[in-house]
Amino acid sequence: MSAELKIALIQSDLHWENIDANLAMFEEKIWTIRESVDLIVLPEMFTTGFSMNPQNLAEVHNTKTFKWMQQQAAQTKAVIMGSMIVKEGTSYYNRFYAVYPDGTFKKYDKKHRFGLAGEDKDYTAGEERVILEVNGWKIFPLVCYDLRFPVWARSRKQPDSLYEYDLLIYVANWPEPRVNAWDTLLAARAIENTAYCVGVNRVGEDGVGANYVGHSAVYDYKGNAMAFSEKEEILTATITKDDLVSFRERFPFQADADEFELS
Question: CA 24, 201, 75: angle at the middle one, nearest 5?
Fold first, then answer.
């Protein structure tokens, strides 16, 4: 198990519904990361922006964007993460991919669809929680609107541990008018689950006039911001397993947590 995990968060404007332009842009940004990192995290729907036009934009698995993620992961030796529009059968998903340097991957389909924008009409909800592992760290990936639903994210006691995961990662297109909720809830998820929490948002204006001001951040298990930005840039942060374990041993709040199951 690695004692540290180094994370790069790419907070960027997006080219509206232009997959090729976004892939080229993110490739350039990735290659400006001079230091070695373990994770590179991109925003929600990083190839298109938050579009309700999946019929024209969706890709099937193992095609252009997925292969691009495999290539970037292999070249950087980092796990590349972000969500994109995927078609499977007749359904469309807002799918989070974590692609490893050896080409393997894990996926999570967004559970909570943003009904105010019509995401519930155009996309199918995911049904399964997924826990990833990177260098011995257990990571729970989530997407944007999932942040408002704490039960879905709640760490659950395991047979061999009080804690289900060590790190939450949210990728998002979270607009400026509600950014205070984004800041508050990211810190809350860290505190209530005694885990690090990462949120990667975008900046700029999308094709339907929504404005984004970033606020990508890394929070420690006490809800303190370790990194934070309101501009287009790449943030890096190093999280430490020894610090997390020490705090959990001193304050085992999870031992008193409620037992529950989701139906």
Answer: 40
| DSSP string of 193-223, one letter each residue | HTSEEEEE--EEE-TTS-EEE--EEEE-TTS
Q: Hey, what are 220's tokens?
A: 């420690």
Point out the residues that are catalytic. 44, 110, 144
End-to-end CA distance of the chain: 33
Could you tell me the residue range of the domain that residue 144 belongs to? Answer: 4-253
Instruction: Please say whether the beta carbons of 168 and 144 come within 8 A.
Output: no
Biggest alpha carbon distance in the chain?
A: 52
Q: Is residue 158 part of a domain?
A: yes
Q: What is the reported pTM? A: 0.98
Residue 157 has phi, psi (to 5 degrees) of -60, 140
Q: What is the pLDDT of residues 62-101, one digit of tens each?
A: 999 999 999 999 999 999 999 999 999 999 999 999 999 9
CB atoms within 10 A of CB 36: 10
Domain at 144, CATH number? 3.60.110.10
Residue 237 is assigned to a structural domain of this protein: yes
The answer to whether 241 and 166 have CB atoms below 8 angstroms apart is yes
Q: What is the Cα–Cα distance from 100 to 130, expressed in whole angstroms?
A: 15
Parallel, antiparallel or unpaired: strands 4-11 and 39-41: parallel
Q: Is residue 259 situated within a structural domain?
A: no
